[in-house]
Write a structure and sequence with these properties.
Number of strands: 22
Radius of gyration: 36 Å
Number of helices: 22
CATH class of one domain: Alpha Beta
Largest sheet: 7 strands, mixed
Distance between the termini: 27 Å
Strand content: 15-25%
């Protein structure tokens, strides 16, 4: 509890004790007929008012002050004004215990609300706490502690164990483990060494490292996240906007209705003026809209907080509401469903072993920095003996000719194999195919004369010149959790999953079958992805179902046009990506696909709770309002209809925090 909450609780307890003692004393005195003055005596009324004013002012003075300020500004038609009118009216009609009791229960509801908001705010404040207080910069050989905003890009910063990384950068010296939970929601530390990127907001766990900053503080990851979180509550959902508009119209209407009830009862029934006003006051208390005004935004606030705890940043409750209505999810392939980097998928040797074929390819590609070459070297995983490698020549657009152990080898695509007359084999697997051939010893000079022009090559018609050794299949490997994540999406109610990719048809078909998407579209340029998404949006726009929205999930780097066009744009693996944070509506701070169904579950649970609270509050309140108008409800039931419903709605709103990854 905060200091303010503890202070409010003490006031509530003190007022409750005093009120209880006063009620007990007055009841006993009434039974024994020993009231200080006869009940009808004005002096007795003054004494009773003064006695019950003590707990009333202890627990409600801030409500009265707040209402008075709002009356002066002219913006007073809210639940605070209703509480003031109802309690002052209770004193006026002689229901002295009712006034402090109503104010007491109202403050109990407010305290519950404050605690609930604090619980929802905690996960967001934990995210806000990632902001570092200072940075240690190395300038002229000295360690200088400065504000992170004073550090320029390119400077060297020392990050000691236990400190937060102040700015995005690259490790220059040292190896350590980082806690990135505040950014990604992942509790498992990650190891980082020289050359690795590290992001502001991470916590250095083990050893001191020196890093070179790659961005100014205002452009760093932590700064962008803080801005995103701070602005998230400014974008309200339709439900919130409706409740706000509803309360503005509803409050003056119920005040007029309460006055009419009192007048009608006084003029057209046998009730006394006091009893008629009392009925109007009951109507006024139970009609207070605070259960709706509080629980709806609190539910969305809790949903955003629950999401941020999982490393899912939602830019506003409107996007959370939109996500709950999604029934189609469109995913980019590269970097989203797949790792986004090449890896050896299969090795198909001809007359030699897999290890020998991979060894030759790795030696030939060892001097290249092409992604395909890097994947082969990584799959080889052994020390490459540079002494075995002689002359290496790159054949533009086709591959490499390399001398290894005195023999000439060709590593490249099918066109190169055709040029040297190696007779390459078609592979049944989709992907990038790297063919390997070896020149026969007696024809080595001829093989060295390859020009790259198959029509003029002296080797093109001589299949005995070079021997085909086999091929290696390179693919962008599917993420291990892709299939499970898509299954989880279906379990949370997503009806259709579509994949868009710029890759070729065969590769797209392979990935689609492996992960289990419903349909795919291949060979798309960025503009083509937008067009295809437009078609899906038009298709879903014609549906009558409430849940008919389309979400797009991309890696946030080259998918910005599609992210902005979808009903909900979700960028994943966006740690440090400017494009993702700017373009997407929802940002997943790591590349864990399983967080997408978690985000959908949180959104749908939040909207379910919002609807439950609206229906429950209105049904209970309308029921008690009717009973009060008919004289079948007293002030205690009216208090339950207000504060009791508020507390139950708040407790229901807190259920969103139970959703786990």
């Amino acid at each position: 509890m905060t200091k303010k909450q503890k202070k409010t609780l003490k006031r509530i307890i003190l007022a409750a004790v005093i009120l209880g003692v006063l009620i007990l004393l007055t009841e006993v005195a009434a039974i024994r007929d020993r009231l200080p003055f006869p009940e009808s005596d004005v002096s007795n009324r003054i004494v009773m008012i003064l006695l019950f004013l003590i707990p009333y002012l202890i627990v409600g003075y801030d409500i009265l002050v707040g209402a008075a300020k709002k009356i002066r500004t002219g913006h007073f038609l809210d639940e605070v004004f209703l509480m003031m009118i109802a309690t002052v009216g209770a004193f006026a009609v002689g229901e002295y215990p009712e006034a402090p009791a109503v104010m007491l229960f109202y403050q109990v509801g407010e305290l519950f609300q404050s605690i609930a908001v604090g619980k929802s705010r905690k996960s967001i404040s934990d995210m806000m706490d990632i902001c570092p207080d200072s940075a240690i910069v190395l300038r002229d050989g000295e360690e200088i502690e400065v504000d992170p905003s004073e550090v320029e890009p390119g400077e060297t910063v020392l990050v000691k164990p236990g400190e937060k990384v102040p700015i995005d950068g690259v490790i220059l010296e040292g190896t350590t483990s980082l806690n990135t939970a505040a950014l990604t929601g992942e509790s498992v530390p990650v190891d980082r060494t020289v050359g690795d990127k590290i992001f502001s907001g991470s916590i250095n766990l083990s050893k001191a490292v020196k890093m070179q900053t790659t961005a100014a503080y205002e452009d760093s990851t932590v700064s962008k996240i803080l801005e995103l979180v701070e602005n998230s509550m400014d974008k309200k959902a339709r439900s919130e906007k409706f409740i706000t508009r509803f309360a503005r119209i509803y409050t003056p209407c119920v005040v007029i209705a309460a006055v009419l009830i009192a007048l009608v009862c006084a003029l057209f029934t046998s009730l006394s003026v006091g009893d008629s006003i009392y009925r109007g006051l009951i109507f006024l208390v139970v009609s207070c809209p605070c259960a709706l005004v509080v629980s709806v935004p609190l539910s969305f606030f809790g949903g955003i907080g629950a999401a941020s705890k999982q490393g899912i940043l939602v830019k506003g409750s409107n996007y959370l509401e939109a996500l709950s209505n999604i029934n189609t999810i469109v995913l980019d392939k590269t970097g989203t469903l797949t790792e986004g980097s090449f890896a050896v998928d299969a090795i198909h040797p001809n007359e030699i072993s897999e290890d020998e074929l991979l060894d030759i390819a790795a030696l030939a590609e060892s001097r290249s920095n092409h992604p395909v070459a890097e994947s082969i070297i990584k799959a080889h995983g052994k020390h490459i003996d540079a002494s075995r490698i002689g002359e290496v020549e790159e054949i533009a657009g086709k591959g490499i000719r390399a001398v290894i152990d005195g023999r000439t080898y060709f590593v490249g695509n099918g066109a190169l194999m055709s040029d040297i007359g190696a007779g390459s084999h078609e592979c049944h697997l989709p992907g990038t195919i790297v063919h390997i051939a070896r020149a026969n010893a007696e024809n080595i000079n001829l093989c060295n004369n390859v020009t790259g022009n198959s029509a003029s090559s002296p080797l093109a018609s001589d299949s005995d010149v070079c021997e085909y050794l086999g091929h290696i299949v390179i693919n962008d490997i599917v993420k291990k959790d892709s299939k499970e994540a898509l299954s989880s999406l279906r379990r949370v109610g997503v009806k259709r999953i579509v994949m868009l990719t710029g890759d070729n048809e065969k590769v797209a078909e392979k990935v689609s079958k492996e992960v289990g998407v419903d349909s795919f579209y291949a060979g798309l340029l960025p503009a083509g992805k937008v067009e295809k998404l437009e078609e899906l949006l038009l298709e879903h726009g014609s549906e009558s179902s409430e849940k008919s929205g389309v979400a797009f999930v991309g890696d946030g780097i080259n998918d910005a046009p599609v992210l902005t066009r979808a009903d909900v744009g979700i960028a994943m693996g966006a740690l440090g990506s400017d494009a993702a944070i700017e373009a997407a509506d929802i940002v997943l701070m790591d590349d864990n696909l399983k967080k997408i169904p978690v985000a959908v579950r949180i959104a749908r649970q939040t909207l379910r709770i919002v609807k439950e609270n609206i229906v429950f509050s209105l049904v209970v309140k309308i029921g008690i309002m009717i009973l009060g108008a008919l004289g079948l409800a007293d002030m205690k039931l009216a208090v339950f209809g207000d504060v009791g419903v508020l507390v139950l709605a708040i407790l229901n709103a807190l259920r969103v925090h139970r959703i786990k990854a």
